[in-house]
Amino acid sequence: MSSKSHAVEADIHPSTLAQKESKRKWVSYIWDTFDKSPEERRLMSKLDSAILTFASLGYFIKYLDQIKLTVRYVIGEIPSNLLLTRIKPRYWIPAMELLWTVLTMSLPRCSKPTQFYVLRFFVGLAESTFYPGMQYIIGSWYRKDELAKRSCIFHTSSGIASMFSGYLMDAVYNLGGRGGFKGWQWLFIVDGIISLPVAISGFFILPDVPEISSPWYLSQEEVKLAQKRMKLEGRKDREPFMKSKLKKIFTSWHIYLLISSTYVSTTGPPEASLFSNNPVYTISQINSIPTTTPAVQVVTTLAYAWISDSILNGSRWPPIIFGACINIISYISLAVWDIPTGWKWTCYIISGAGYGLSGLLMAWAHEICSEDNEERSLVIGSMNEMAYVFQAWLPLVVWQQVDAPQYRKGFIAITVLSVLLIGTTLLIRNLHRRERVQKSTNEAHEAEETEEDSVGVMSLDANGIKA
């Protein structure tokens, strides 16, 4: 094969390499497996059934628990994600989910505040492993044209949980006094009942990363196909942590810019408190009305994923900038405050379009860090952890209850962060594009050198034969 052929091959997207003989069918814009070979379609169907089902149900339950009593957990995420590069995720993640299930169901029996706070600390510690860990697993099995959809389907579980929690709290509110438990105690009991079967199922259906995975529902041929898919995608296998690797990670722009991009998508106003001091609204309405914003979040998150994976051919930055622009329009209007009531409600509701970006950002991080498994794990964990660190102090400064419902400082802060997100996104796009161009150039140069060496060897052999 000529050097030109090698260069062309390097420029072809891995998803195209698997389907050179046929053009992309229109049905692939609906769901990507419709345009793949029967073997790959069967593999992805099994992976989706196992990974997405466990991930979505687990995150849904975790978010329900997190909403009931805001727990700022930041200790366990990075260590847990780094641990996943050394041990088998199929044991670690379900074990942590089982732990938080047991601890959550123990909370109603606490008789002292100290007991409650200690248990909540360990509940938060166990919960902290789930989201970044499952994002790492998703990024280890899916390719670029599949990744955003799976990452965002997983992420929408939080929006659905936000909606469901309002109705759940409204329903459980009426259980107070039954069985000797108060309403808040019933919340933890119901949460534990839902999460227990999900936690146990994880030991049986969650796969490890492809290089060490052998789940019962995948044949050896399917495991090899999964490994080949990741090789075509450029995802590296697990490697030892060396000093040189850590130096490479922390001297790269990847970790710093990707972390800074997550702040806006996870920061928003405490919407329920916007109405809690207004006698016009009942307790039921206070729990139910704020569910409209998460509904918008769910719809836009999925829309971003489908558009990015299909119409935009894997480009992540346009939906991110769109969501940031929606934030700017919404929060500038709310900062003014003296606007028509209808537009005010519209701004509250459409602001959910800015919360649906985390899944897309995670998918982008997987692609940017695909050449180093440990960097990918660390960056994913750091993105989620630093977002929670940001959430831990920002509300205390800009979302103060004394300012309700005119959170002027908060609305201005989110507007500024949205502007910064646009700038950060464009910078990431340009730097990543430069890296890809440099990589293609280096690969083409290496291919030329290899071919020249081969020609030289053949020439020497020919001269020897001639002599």
UniProtKB/TrEMBL annotation:
One Gene Ontology MF term: transmembrane transporter activity
Record localization: Cell membrane
Keyword Glycosyltransferase among UniProt keywords: no
Keyword Transport: yes
Keywords, ordered alphabetically: Cell membrane, Membrane, Transmembrane, Transmembrane helix, Transport
Topological category with respect to the lipid bilayer: Multi-pass membrane protein
Region Disordered, residue ranges: 438-467
GO cellular component, one term: plasma membrane
Superkingdom in the source lineage: Eukaryota
Any Pfam family: MFS_1
Major place of residence: membrane
Transmembrane spans: 114-131, 152-173, 185-206, 319-337, 343-365, 410-428
Family: Belongs to the major facilitator superfamily. Allantoate permease family.
Protein name: Major facilitator superfamily (MFS) profile domain-containing protein
Species name: Penicillium antarcticum
